[in-house]
Automatic annotation (TrEMBL), chains A, B:
<keyword id="KW-0285">Flavoprotein</keyword>
<dbReference type="Pfam" id="PF01565">
    <property type="entry name" value="FAD_binding_4"/>
</dbReference>
<dbReference type="InterPro" id="IPR036318">
    <property type="entry name" value="FAD-bd_PCMH-like_sf"/>
</dbReference>
<protein>
    <submittedName>
        <fullName>FAD-binding protein</fullName>
    </submittedName>
</protein>
<dbReference type="Pfam" id="PF02913">
    <property type="entry name" value="FAD-oxidase_C"/>
</dbReference>
<keyword id="KW-0560">Oxidoreductase</keyword>
<dbReference type="InterPro" id="IPR016164">
    <property type="entry name" value="FAD-linked_Oxase-like_C"/>
</dbReference>
<keyword id="KW-0274">FAD</keyword>
<dbReference type="InterPro" id="IPR051914">
    <property type="entry name" value="FAD-linked_OxidoTrans_Type4"/>
</dbReference>
<dbReference type="InterPro" id="IPR004113">
    <property type="entry name" value="FAD-bd_oxidored_4_C"/>
</dbReference>
<dbReference type="GO" id="GO:0071949">
    <property type="term" value="F:FAD binding"/>
</dbReference>
<dbReference type="InterPro" id="IPR016166">
    <property type="entry name" value="FAD-bd_PCMH"/>
</dbReference>
<dbReference type="InterPro" id="IPR016169">
    <property type="entry name" value="FAD-bd_PCMH_sub2"/>
</dbReference>
<feature type="domain" description="FAD-binding PCMH-type">
    <location>
        <begin position="29"/>
        <end position="208"/>
    </location>
</feature>
<dbReference type="InterPro" id="IPR006094">
    <property type="entry name" value="Oxid_FAD_bind_N"/>
</dbReference>
<dbReference type="InterPro" id="IPR016171">
    <property type="entry name" value="Vanillyl_alc_oxidase_C-sub2"/>
</dbReference>
<dbReference type="GO" id="GO:0016491">
    <property type="term" value="F:oxidoreductase activity"/>
</dbReference>
């Protein structure tokens, strides 16, 4: 079958030079002379594309919103690009099992909106609302609410996956408990498009919490704030989000947005949310929170009204943009045990002193997910490339040594692969490669990423 | 190295005929002429045993408490049996990250007791309290509280695994968020000792709920009770356990224990528990529960006092024993979507009418986990074998067709393998085998089970 027999609509298939320049400039800046770009709409088309790629021995690269931060969907030369952004329908919302069936190209923002309008809730909340659910599954996307609700992994009941062979696997189940063979669902989640391509995802949906309350706690220093986080988790507080940042970091947002943060005391903050089904239960948890936090000598604890809630979260969400304005940069997404956040923070201060580079750190304290940014300062591009690699290489090793992981929620892709290979031993990586070969023996599906 | 150089204590190594007859009679009734039985105490010993087995090309069979119901640790002839029951220490309880590190041979009862005495909680609660945590991980054990708290999978942070090659992998992490490569942890969990042997497990522990309240709702029929369960889940009630059974089933327990169940109305029951950190929040949830259940015309709703709580759960827990008294039997552990419990129940009634065999069904309604028992009645052993296989073959196919799975929490092992092979297509099973071969290319680790 030719490509034009597989994808019948002209606006969904571009062969070789037909691929719009705009597309390449925006989404595939490093690609040249690609074989073709196809936008499938159905599982059948994806299967046929896989058979076509097999016949021509093409490398296949999947793509979604291209919002990923690990360059996990980068093409180079001669590949067949499959863009899932038009395969984006909601297929079914089953209220009996609370299951939303979607195609992979739908954005997370659309999923959240669809269920919320019906009184339900899809908790995973990555910052990019235009990222696709297929990409969210491929990276096991997390976000701020993971401390209470978990990550994407916890909300995938079942998926349909097309393998490079063209075979279709149904992995997972709408049945909740499963002790029926190796868990392929969990293997495909987080595999960054290297094992198979999802063509349908059945998501777990939950009822929408009706009450939300945000709280700020201000502390004299970040390590003290981190101690409070350990107590919060140990006391089993039912906390939905627990963000941390220094005054220095939120000050960047304050300056950019020209708005003050609702607390001006202290040098470090926890910005927290509690949610639930009644005002009483949420306030009861917050009373417990106050008791816990008071044992850590906070500068102040502020229960936010509606307007201040919006302001506080807007400022928090803008830290990254403010940092990027200072220095074009991709945030790291380090993951460490919750009792090692302060340890890592102190380490970055040492690196600052030694290297002269500035770090801005913030992130999800409740689950030890730290978005550290290393600022370029006034280094030349060449100096920056060398120094950045040197600093990151030591940083990733340090994270590994304190029991952490190179990626919490963005994935390894191409960007972190050198560090991934550095910190995981060859035996561990050997078995990842064996798994890759089990599903893709010719290494034709998104090769070079992750494994 | 000889075995006696690996395992130095005489009471931990039995070669060939030295293996105690009692052990074989009790734990390995089908085994004859085993190579050896070893009780390792350390990872190093397990590694050395694997190297020894490689040199001699022995099959290795792991074993724990032998409480499994799927015959997943059965040996036959010439194997090296590794019994983990003496490798059963608690290694560490870290209160900062709420992580309990244990060896695989510790029983689930001991884990629960240890943390509870310190004010903490390990939620997974399989019925066999003398099952080992290694076995719980191998089968992704669940139990009654899975509806709120999830299964064993949700409580394993990290594990140390020894492969058949003798290599040691550290899988998972104490860091909570993970988008750092294929998830080997989730692959090993539920793999029934066919991919590697766990030598250390770091468990997630949570604070102990201080308040518990059980409730009975009586309904005119099981299908009506099942409708109520769908509403309970849709309304997002924070329910810890939600068991279902018919009057006929609980009547078997009442007769055996000579004690009445705290409700005598209706033909089917839901026995539920709510837990939490305050009386108010638990009672608020129960008020919401009553409102939900009342829309399904219950015969009565009974909030249980302490004595009746003990009685009700004791009767529930005794259903299986009472069934086994009627007919030596292993309960099935079918898993279906929560809205298919009544469908499956109605199907078993049809099979009863057609086959003349009696079914007793009960189980965990909140997560669609049905422990159905097929009673032998007065069939001869030969008739029973034929008829049982015929009925089960059709039953497992039906469960598959309505979106269910053959095993919720007991595993596939040897017992369910024919049905597993029947309901999953050859392409799906091919990839499971490829994964098996990736870790165990010579098929020497617990072969013939699952894959």
């Amino acid at each position: 079958m030719n490509l034009s027999e597989i994808i019948l609509d002209a606006d969904r298939l571009f062969i070789g030079d037909e691929i719009p320049r705009d597309y390449l400039n925006e989404k595939q800046t490093k690609a040249k002379n690609l074989h073709a770009l196809a936008y499938p709409l159905t599982k059948g088309e994806v299967v046929d594309l896989m058979h076509y790629a097999k016949e021509k021995q093409l490398v296949v690269i999947p793509s979604g919103a291209n919002s990923g931060l690990a360059h996990a969907t980068e093409a180079h030369e001669g590949e067949l690009l499959i863009d899932f952004s038009k395969m984006n329908r909601i297929l079914d919302f089953d209220l009996d099992t609370l299951t939303l069936s979607v195609e992979p190209g739908i954005t997370i923002g659309e999923v959240q909106k669809y269920v919320q309008e019906r009184g339900f809730f899809y908790p995973p909340d990555p910052a990019s609302k235009h990222s696709t659910i297929g990409g969210n599954v491929a990276t096991n996307a997390g976000g701020m609410r993971a401390v209470k609700y978990g990550t994407t992994r916890d909300y995938v009941r079942q998926m349909e996956v097309v393998l490079i062979s063209g075979e279709v696997l149904e992995v997972g189940s709408l049945a909740i408990k499963n002790s029926s063979g190796y868990n392929l669902k969990h293997l495909f989640i987080g595999s960054e498009g290297t094992l198979g391509l999802t063509t349908r995802i059945d998501l777990k949906i939950i009822p929408l919490p009706t009450v939300n309350q945000s709280v700020i706690a201000a502390f004299p220093s970040l390590p003290v704030a981190c101690e409070a986080v350990i107590s919060i988790m140990r006391d089993g507080l039912d906390i939905t989000a627990c963000e941390f940042f220094e005054r220095d970091a939120i000050a960047l947002s304050e300056k950019m947005l020209n708005t003050p943060f609702p607390s001006q005391k202290g040098q470090a903050y926890l910005l927290m949310t509690f949610d639930g089904s009644s005002q009483e239960s949420v306030l009861a948890e917050i009373a417990r929170l106050e008791a816990t936090i008071k044992t850590h000598a906070p500068e102040e604890i502020v229960l936010l009204n509606e307007a201040d809630t919006v302001t506080a979260w807007k400022l928090r969400d803008s830290i990254l943009t403010a940092v990027v304005e200072l220095s074009e940069n991709e945030p790291l997404d380090l993951s460490v045990p919750t009792n090692k956040i302060a340890t890592l923070f102190n380490y970055t201060k040492e690196v600052e002193a030694k290297s002269g580079l500035r770090f801005v750190s913030f992130g999800h304290a409740g689950d030890g997910n730290i978005h550290a940014c290393v600022l370029r300062g006034d280094l030349s591009e060449a100096e920056w490339a060398v120094k950045r690699h040197e600093v990151l290489s030591e940083l990733y090793q340090y994270v590994h040594d304190i029991g952490g992981l190179p990626s919490a929620e963005h994935g390894i892709g191409l960007t972190k692969k050198p560090y991934f290979d550095q910190v995981f031993d060859s035996s561990y990586r050997h078995y990842l490669k064996q798994i890759k070969l089990a599903f893709d023996p010719e290494n034709r599906l998104n090769p070079g990423k992750l494994v």
